[in-house]
Specification:
By secondary structure, this protein is of the alpha+beta class. The protein has one domain: Trna Endonuclease, Chain: A, domain 1, CATH 3.40.1350.10. It is 32% helix and 21% strand. β5, α2 and β6 form a beta-alpha-beta unit. The chain is globular, with a radius of gyration of 17 Å.
Length: 122
């Protein structure tokens, strides 16, 4: 069994999350605080993993959360960044006055996600 040694002055190592684990955690927490949730899951096709959406669906946010306002959320883990399509969706939604977030595993462990899901809309 390997042990991690924490050096003085160094931050404690954080656990690593897969995006599907972060997704499940955010959905569970949102339900706890009374949010309605939409997430469109990809399915395996003969052409690889695809999400069945039409129009300009490429890059559509991972989650739409509705309670006393609407949150549009893209999730990223491990330093992954937005694709051009994801950035375009979030930019268009923000331009329309919508509340949008890119939540990361770091945001999850720092309590940022829970804090936003607890409070009333901005």
């Amino acid at each position: 069994m390997s042990e991690q040694i924490q050096l003085a002055g160094m931050p404690a190592p954080r656990p690593k999350l897969l995006e599907k684990e972060l997704l499940a955690a955010v959905i569970d927490t949102a339900r706890l605080f009374g949010w309605r949730i939409a997430h469109f899951r990809p399915a395996m096709t003969k052409h690889g993993w695809k999400t069945a959406v039409g129009g300009d669906g490429a890059g559509f946010p991972d989650l739409v959360l509705v309670r006393d306002g609407v949150l549009w959320v893209e999730l990223k883990v491990g330093g992954n960044t937005l694709s051009d399509e994801q950035a375009a969706w979030l930019e268009a939604l923000r331009a329309a006055g919508e509340e949008c977030y890119v939540w990361t595993d770091h945001d999850w462990f720092a309590g940022v996600v829970e804090a936003r899901l607890r409070r009333a809309p901005a």
